[in-house]
Amino acid sequence: MKAAIRDEHGLAFAERPRPVPGPEEVLVKVHAIALNRADLGVLAGHMHGSIGGAGTVLCMEWAGEAVEVGPEVKNIRIGDRIMGSGAAAAAEYTLADRGRAYPIPAGMSFERAVTLPVALQTMHDAVVVNGRLKPGESVLVMGASSGVGLMAMLIAKKMGAGLVVGTSTNAQRRTRLGEFGADLAVDTSDPAWPEQVLKATGGKGVDLVIDQLSGGTVNASMKAAAVLGRIVNVGRLAGARAEFDFDLHALKRIDYVGVTHRTRSNEEIREECRKTWADLAAGVTDGSLALPISATFPFARLGDAFAMMRANEHFGKIVVTMG
Fold it and tell me: Could you list the residue ranges forming a coiled coil in this record (predicted)?
């Protein structure tokens, strides 16, 4: 089968053996893949958990059709249209764990479906499970114009949040955040942005911060948080290290939680997927939890898709079709 790999020079296309599913796995004929920031790191030669290195089949988000199932798989049948996340998605066939695949609703295209798995489970885990969002609480999403950021706002509203604030340094993107649940959009390049958030919350600050940026923004996000607020650190697009105001952290008694999937067991991720679908399946089916497709590329132009993501030219998801 044809696959996109990382070789010593970067992106390359190669022939690879068609994988064989284990007892609890499904062989998926891939129809579409979607790009994520982690894919850029692997392409650049970095490890993402246990994934990476020369010869690695790229990408982690797919939608397709089940063509073979292991003997212990009871929830998926041959011919089912499914979507999910896992290693080695950028190939004609990939393997899926039985507990990490979601059904694609009737009438939804593979291109639309592939935008959802990573954003749904990442932000359900951040907003609902670790963020412990309660109805009526206020939420701030740092880096809200990314696909997962947009989904964080949609999930917050779906789960009963009150005020939702989204951040973006791009003026054009800020104007669109309201389409995805933001009641207020702020620019984190403005040093006074925490004051805007405090004003919008009557001086209290937000109850929950979903932080995809960190780096130099961490202290400002604590300023924008309420006393006894929660901050869930999902990503570090603004930097993995920065000066941290421990006194401010203590004064506000903030619960600061770090999350990643790189150190979770397969059973933990299966449970995460189960909870995600239990809460969000209806929103996926009725279309209220949907992300914009910024661009679609054929598989042969995967390099152009990566270039678009690297240049940060997209709003929403970048999709690559295999057909």
Answer: none
